[in-house]
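thread: overnight batch results

M.L. [08:02]
morning all. the overnight job finished for the chain we discussed friday. pasting input first so we're all looking at the same thing
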Amino acid sequence: MTSSTPTTHPTVHASPEVRDTRVAGAPVALTTRMSTPPAESAAADVWATDLDWLRRAADAATDHDVDRALRRPRPGSADLAALLSDAAERRLEELAQRAHEVTTRRFGRTVHLFAPLYVSNECVSECTYCGFSATNRIVRRTLAIDEVVAEARSLVDAGHRHLLLVAGEHARIVSKDYLVDIVAALAPFVPQLSLEVQVWDIETYRRLVDAGCDGLVVYQETYDPSVYDAVHLKGKKRNAAWRMHACDRGAEAGMRRLGVGALLGLATDWKREVLGVGVHAAALVRRQWRSEVTVALPRMQPAAGEPEPALVVDDRSFTQAIAALRIALPDVGLVLSTREPPALRDALVRIGVTHLSAGSHTEPGGYTSATDAEPQFEIHDTRSPAEVASMLRSANLDPVWKDWQRS
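M.L. [08:03]
and the structure it wrote out:
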């Protein structure tokens, strides 16, 4: 997706000083981190993009704009806005067919399978939407290295060859050394390892790459600055610029796969969030061209004991978002998790989704034994990896367990 929008420098929301709960009385001034992303980075490109202008363009788009977006060989951000418009929504089946054609041309009939492996739900950050938030009274658990190995071997036995290591933000318990040791322990028998943990500096990412990690996933959660401040109450995650720049740092360290995303339902305007994700992914493709890029749009759903979403994104709008991203970002992988129900997942892999999690647990230790540790969110697709693979074959799609083997 090429850049085609005016740019502006948004107001920087300075992060207040907070206390690091790892060491009593030791203040951590988050303003010592960057307040804006470094120049010539993908994050800086996003920071400078006027998403409000793009959002207004979506409102103003006509059938002619949609036609142009569907025909353009190299769609830009204004084309993505047109594909998210009401005019495009009225042509959803046409968008879905076009997305299917783009997906088949670029990715063939392959769908990549992976599993999340939660190593810890310890967290010192306070985020209003997360089950692991520091203020939540839940059973906390951090796996020992041998427990992580046992979980990984269970997933490998089930067919998985790509594992996403996930943890809450706790730099003492889920430390750099702990993560490096986990990656080093798993790399000999797990061909592909990615991380979705707190963000680190370049040197830490280099250590993780050297140990055998090749992928980094960092969800910005929301691209609305005021919402970002409102939902991140405490912890290093409050610094939006530092977080947004994480994939640039990971790419510089040698990560070959980068993933970004937004949690739909945090903000009241889902179209603006999709525009933010699209702009971010396009900037990474342009700036960090040595790395593959993926995008995810997990949805918040109303559930007992969970925070109410600011907006419930319905299935039709979600499908439009997936189709629009596929058409506008033909080279970017689209990821769909087990948050979504089986029927919807089965439908969306026929349109534009290229990466599926399967047989997932979102609590530490959930694959090998019963555990009291709390899950991060509720799973809606409980099918085994074999059942998901069978579904793909029945749809004339090829499940891919790995596409990379480290030397």
